[in-house]
C-alpha cells in the first residue's frame, strides 16, 4: 500500500509538474549567451514587477517564475545541471530570490535588515522604479571625467547616473570604474546599455563588498577576461557548514560578461542599497594606460585563482573521504574504550568473588571497619580538643601569693 501523502506534499508535487522550461519562460533559446539571458530577464522582470502591477496575482506569479528561471540560467553550474537532468538536478527548493527593498513595507524591511545584521545573506535587486525611469530615458546623467573622482550622497533605493566619454585610444588601453564608501554602506555599481529609443537598460551589476575600512565595487574593462566574485553564491548552504563554506568559496568566481568597451559614451550608476539610510560614496573613472604592471598582475592572480578552484574541487573529494575515515575511527575508539572499561569492571568483580565470607558478612565487616575507624577518629579529635583547651586556659590559671601581714585590720 503506498504511503499516505499530505495535502501540502500533493500540492508541491503538482507545482513541480507545472513548472515551465526556464528558456521558455524567459523567451530565449538554449544556446543563448549569458548577456542575452540577463537582458531578457531584466525586461520581463520590469514588465511583471509588483510595483507596476499592484495586486495583480497573475503578474506576481509571472514575476516569481521569471526570477526563478533566471536563478537557474544565470548560474553556469545550475544551467548545466538543468540541461542535463532537469529541475531535480538543480535542487530548486534552495534557489535564492532577489528582493526589491523598495517594494517591501516598513515591517518587512525591518525584518530583512535584522536578518542581514545577523549574518543571513539577503540578495537584493535594483528598484523597478529606477529601472523603468532609466528605460524611459527620464533620468538625469552627470558627466564623469576620467581621473577626476566625484563624491556624493545617494538616498536609499535611488540612483545617481553618470556618463563617461571614452576615446578609441582609451578604450584600447583599458578602462576601470570604481566606487567606494568610507562609511561602509551597501550600494550597487550599475552599467547600462543605450537602447534605440534613447533609454538605458541594465547590463551589468556589481554589489559592494567590504574591503578593509571601506565598502567598494568596481568594473574592469581591460581587453582580456576579468573575473568577478559573487559572494552570495551558495552562501546559505555554506553558512550551515564551515567545510562547505571553504570548498564553495570560489564557486562565485565567474568571468565578467563584458571585457572591453567601445569608444563613445557609456553610462554608469550608483544605487543606494541600504535598508534605511543614504549612502555616501566616491566614484572615479580611470584609463588604465599607466597601470601596465597592475594589469599583468591581475591577469596572473586570476589565473592562479582559477587553478585553485580546480584544485579545491579535487581536494574536497579527498578531504571528504579522509573525514569519513576519521569519523569512523573516532567512533570505533569510543566503542573500544567502553568495551575495555566494561571488561575491566567484570574482571574486578570476579577477583572480588574469590572468598568464603558470605556477602552479608563481608558487607557488615566493611561497615564495622568503617565505624571503628570513625570512632578512633572521634577519640583522637577529643584528645586534641582537650589538649587545646588545656593550653588555652594556661594564660589565666595563675597562683597568686597574698601576704596576710600587710592586710589592713
Automatic annotation (TrEMBL):
Amino acid composition bias (Basic and acidic residues), ranges on this chain: 370-381
Ranges of residues in domain J: 21-86
Bias type Basic residues, positions: 382-394
InterPro entries assigned: DnaJ_domain (IPR001623), DnaJ_domain_CS (IPR018253), J_dom_sf (IPR036869), Plant_DnaJ_domain (IPR052812)
Chief location: membrane
Cellular component per GO, a single term: membrane
Keywords: Chaperone, Coiled coil, Membrane
Ranges for region Disordered: 1-21, 354-394
Taxonomic superkingdom: Eukaryota
SUPFAM superfamilies: Chaperone J-domain (SSF46565)
The UniProt record lists the keyword Membrane: yes
Localization (cell): Membrane
PANTHER family documented for this protein: CHAPERONE PROTEIN DNAJ 16, DNAJ DOMAIN (PROKARYOTIC HEAT SHOCK PROTEIN)
Protein name (Swiss-Prot/TrEMBL): J domain-containing protein
Amino acid at each position: 500500500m503506498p504511503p499516505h501523502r499530505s495535502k501540502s506534499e500533493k500540492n508541491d508535487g503538482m507545482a513541480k509538474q507545472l513548472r515551465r522550461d526556464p528558456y521558455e519562460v524567459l523567451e530565449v533559446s538554449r544556446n543563448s549567451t549569458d548577456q542575452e539571458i540577463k537582458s531578457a530577464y531584466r525586461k520581463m522582470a520590469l514588465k511583471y514587477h509588483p510595483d507596476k502591477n499592484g495586486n495583480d496575482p497573475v503578474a506576481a506569479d509571472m514575476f516569481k517564475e521569471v526570477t526563478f528561471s533566471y536563478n537557474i540560467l544565470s548560474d553556469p553550474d545550475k544551467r548545466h545541471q538543468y540541461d542535463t537532468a532537469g529541475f531535480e538536478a538543480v535542487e530548486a527548493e534552495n534557489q535564492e530570490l532577489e528582493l526589491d527593498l523598495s517594494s517591501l513595507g516598513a515591517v518587512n524591511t525591518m525584518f530583512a535588515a535584522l536578518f542581514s545584521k545577523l549574518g543571513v545573506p539577503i540578495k537584493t535587486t535594483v528598484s523597478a522604479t529606477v529601472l523603468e525611469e532609466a528605460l524611459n530615458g527620464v533620468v538625469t546623467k552627470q558627466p564623469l571625467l576620467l581621473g577626476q573622482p566625484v563624491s556624493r550622497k545617494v538616498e536609499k533605493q535611488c540612483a545617481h547616473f553618470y556618463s563617461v566619454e571614452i576615446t578609441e585610444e582609451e578604450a584600447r588601453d583599458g578602462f576601470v570604474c570604481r566606487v567606494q564608501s568610507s562609511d561602509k554602506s551597501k550600494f550597487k555599481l550599475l552599467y547600462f546599455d543605450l537602447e534605440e529609443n534613447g533609454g538605458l537598460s541594465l547590463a551589468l551589476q556589481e554589489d559592494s563588498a567590504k574591503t578593509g575600512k571601506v565598502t567598494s565595487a568596481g568594473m574592469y574593462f581591460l581587453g582580456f577576461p576579468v573575473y568577478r566574485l559573487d559572494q552570495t553564491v551558495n552562501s546559505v548552504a555554506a553558512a550551515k557548514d564551515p567545510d562547505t563554506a571553504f570548498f564553495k568559496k570560489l564557486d562565485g568566481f565567474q568571468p565578467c560578461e563584458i571585457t572591453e568597451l567601445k569608444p563613445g559614451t557609456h553610462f554608469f550608476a550608483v544605487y543606494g542599497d541600504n535598508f534605511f539610510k543614504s549612502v555616501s560614496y566616491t566614484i572615479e573613472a580611470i584609463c588604465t594606460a599607466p597601470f601596465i604592471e597592475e594589469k599583468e598582475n591581475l591577469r596572473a592572480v586570476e589565473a592562479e585563482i582559477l587553478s585553485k578552484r580546480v584544485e579545491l574541487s579535487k581536494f574536497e573529494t579527498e578531504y571528504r573521504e579522509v573525514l569519513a575515515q576519521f569519523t569512523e575511527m573516532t567512533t570505533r575508539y569510543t566503542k573500544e574504550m567502553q568495551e575495555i572499561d566494561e571488561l575491566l569492571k567484570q574482571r574486578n568483580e570476579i577477583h572480588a568473588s574469590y572468598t568464603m565470607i558470605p556477602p552479608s558478612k563481608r558487607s557488615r565487616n566493611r561497615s564495622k571497619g568503617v565505624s571503628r575507624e570513625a570512632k578512633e577518629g572521634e577519640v583522637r579529635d577529643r584528645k586534641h580538643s582537650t589538649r587545646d583547651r588545656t593550653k588555652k586556659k594556661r594564660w589565666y590559671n595563675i597562683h597568686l601569693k597574698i601576704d596576710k601581714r600587710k592586710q589592713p585590720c
